[in-house]
Known about the structure:
By secondary structure, the protein is of the alpha+beta class. α16 packs antiparallel against α17, α25 (452-465) crosses α26 and α29 (540-549) packs across α30.
Amino acid sequence: MPAPIRLRELIRTIRTARTQAEEREMIQKECAAIRSSFREEDNTYRCRNVAKLLYMHMLGYPAHFGQLECLKLIASQKFTDKRIGYLGAMLLLDERQDVHLLMTNCIKNDLNHSTQYVQGLALCTLGCMGSSEMCRDLAGEVEKLLKTSNSYLRKKAALCAVHVIRKVPELMEMFLPATKNLLSEKNHGVLHTSVVLLTEMCERSPDMLSHFRKLVPQLVRILKNLIMSGYSPEHDVSGISDPFLQVRILRLLRILGKSDDDSSEAMNDILAQVATNTETSKNVGNAILYETVLTIMDIKSESGLRVLAINILGRFLLNNDKNIRYVALTSLLKTVQTDHNAVQRHRSTIVDCLKDLDVSIKRRAMELSFALVNGNNIRGMMKELLYFLDSCDPEFKADCASGVFLAAEKYAPSKRWHIDTIMRVLTTAGSYVRDDSVPNLIQLITNSVEMHAYTVQRLYKALLDDISQQPLVQVASWCIGEYGDLLVSGQCEEEEPIQVTEDEVLDVLEGLLVSNLSTPVTRGYSLTAIMKLSTRFSSVNRIKKVVSIYGSSIDVELQQRAVEYNALFKKYDHMRPALLERMPIMEKTATNGPTEIVQTNGETEPSVVETKHLPPVTQPANQANDLLDLLGGNDVPVIQTTMPTKPASAGGELLDLLGDLSLSGGPTPAPAPSVPTSQPSFLLDGLTSQPLFNDIATAAIPPMTAYHKNGLKIDFTFERANPNPNVAVITIHASNSTEADMTEFVFQAAVPKTFQLQLLSPSSNVVPALNQGTVTQVIRVLNPQKQQLRMRIKLTYTLKGSPVQDLAEVNNFPPQSWQ
């Protein structure tokens, strides 16, 4: 058989192919020749054939038939064969294929080989694709090589140890003795891999973290030597000595100094030196400075050092590189809550980033600008943000409008300014605002009694200019219906009143009813406004005609309104003035009660303030542990929920919320009467034939707070389904007291095996900020054995661009919900 072509010739031939079909034909022809060679057990050219096969694999063609040939090359005594064999194993094999287990013995022999380069090949392969079984079998050999004096092998053994720890974390303690002398090594390669190994161990084990905190002075000394050392051509990158090692040490210091005063104190000085001595003209220096800033912000650093870190980020904002500007904005957004005043100094630079052409930078600058708004700078910041709203792309308008609404509600210097700002948003981006912006603005206008004439005049002018922004048109229609008499009388004192007649006002509203731009909801607002004006204007006959016309509208909603208003004119005309009088001042109901801040391990958690001190409720430990681990994690905090007391029932018996728990060993209440056993056993029976809520019995079951943490509050309300008393219907109400919306909100629940649970779709996946609304979701729980209800919940959402996930157990359900 003729000798196969060399790899170089194959590459040259494939590159001459003009079409993909021609290339595919060449590959198939060569693969056939390689298969024939493999079948004939041709040892002479096996290495060459596997090398060509690896090149084809890199081009995306199947090469799995060469896996066993790689194992044969690994078993060869020639170094060139072993090198290609191990490379093929790393590319063609992984732990999902059983073939890789055949390599274990060869790797073990090569780890004990007399040649360091063969040992290095075995370490690289094990560290790249070793399975947990291989790692367990070969960890001892890796640990021996980690103690050797050969720096070439030590650095490879350290990286291999990182892979072993990731695959089999319980083997971590085996490598602990070998780490003692790693940081004393002069070789930078060994130092680098040693720091990677220590970082991995600290991240995976709190015990290791405590153990390695004593190494902080040694790490500080290494970092200081790197900064102060002169020019070293072996490690120099753009004038900086080994920046890769510096970055790794800074990351390890960040982990060791977090939540530890002594370690943080030991590294304050060196961090200040790195921050002030690092050259910023090259990207290498910026990378080190960025890691330094992250370390300063994560440890318990001094206030002056934190200001220095924020000033570095401020300098990043002036950099021409877009990536550096984006990194700076993202970092400032994370630190703005803890170092608000220091970030405020860079406000003008941040606002300038709103004009950047890059959409990612604009979005981060917008989020950071809203985070910087306070009572002192509200006017200036809103001016800039409204200018940005005018000119930004449509993808930004919704988030920007929502942010302006929240900031204006929180920091408005006056009611007139507040109304003007919201109207400006509705005029520029009315089609992009949230659904609740219309009722919120109506409530604001209603409660600002002295601004009614000014507001209705401004809205009337806006209607004359543009009727395409539907939320603006809806608010204007409502205000004209309420305060049309003030508009016609010209009582506005804040600005020069306009002369408007009743017919002109009605012409505008009728124009909205027939406009193609108006949505059905807007037409409903307009018709109701015209009806209200029948008690404020003298043109009652014209209004009657308009209302009667829409009594036959094809829009069912509009038709129903018109029919009811006609009936009001004909049968109940004496009641019309009272029914259509002005709306009273609306009181905004708070969805969250008063909270107090509880310090827990340095973090603040709001907890509900109880009006009465209820006796503590203790759950048996075995009950909490019996709950199925359906959502992952066993170390979940058990939430002792607080339930408001319920007034006495009509029968005069006060519902004792804690009576069924037998806290003092007293007699327990009588058991609930037995229910027929003919009820359907499956949770979903009957859902298809009848609506969910038609057969809910309103039993006296008190509500409860199931979760309250990080601004998110989950309340449970309970009802009982009539067709099946064993089914409890739980409605969750999720509210958000933080300043930003919680997006991508997902609520999940799990119950023990004796229960069955059905989770219906939520009302929304966005929990509005500042308790502006709630997300509701219905849970149906089948409890045929009447056991105490226990539940594990999992909450997932995104807050200010960061994903949040939390688990909790809810064990303190009111007895009425499960008895």
